[in-house]
Amino acid sequence: MAPTFNHYWPVPMDESSTRERWSWRRQPWLVSGILGVLLAIVFGFMIYFAVKANSPACKDGLRAEQECQNRTHLLEHQLTRAQDVLLETEAQAAACNQTVETLKASLKKEKAQSHELQERIKKLNQELNTIREQGLRKENEASGGENSSTSSGNTLSRCVVTLLLAVSLHALLA
């Protein structure tokens, strides 16, 4: 025998068929009533929360939250600016420290050159004094037996030597 395709559920013939009369499929008005009650409850909660959301306390809280966000944004902006200024200042401080080190090195070099020049000045002064003493001795020796023209020649040569030493000293200091 060939299989049959039934489009309907088989109907039992015993007492259990009375229970199926009360199934959800058979009572659409009961399902509709329960759904209506659930919708009314949900709608009631929506009204309750809408009233709460529009209350003055909630609006004040929203205003306070917006003010807090604005202040936070302002403080973040100020912090960013302060960090930028700090970075610039640190860069300037590093440049200043480098300049100070360079100036210290230059000062040390200048002190060494100054000390060297002072030593050369002392040496030249000693040579000048020695030359003067020799000139005075020669003048004393010459004044005893020579005429006045030789004496004036010695004085002139003494002046030339002094002038040359002064010019060389000036050149060293410059």
Total strands: 0
Along the chain, the helix and strand elements come as: HHH
Largest sheet: none
With helices defined by DSSP (H or I, 4 residues minimum), what is the helix count?
3
Distance between the termini: 135 Å
Secondary-structure class: mainly alpha
Shape: rod-shaped
Uncertain residue ranges: none
Protein model, in words:
The structure is a single chain. By secondary structure, this protein is an all-alpha fold. The chain has helices spanning 28-53, 56-145, 148-173. The longest helix is centred in the middle third of the chain and has 90 residues, at 56-145. The model has no long low-confidence stretch (mean pLDDT 81).
Features:
174 residues; mainly alpha; 3 helices; 82% helix
Give a summary of the structure in a few sentences:
Helices cover 82% and strands 0% of the residues. It is mainly α and 174 residues long.
SSE layout and pairing:
Elements: H1 28-53, H2 56-145, H3 148-173
Helix pairs in contact: 2-3
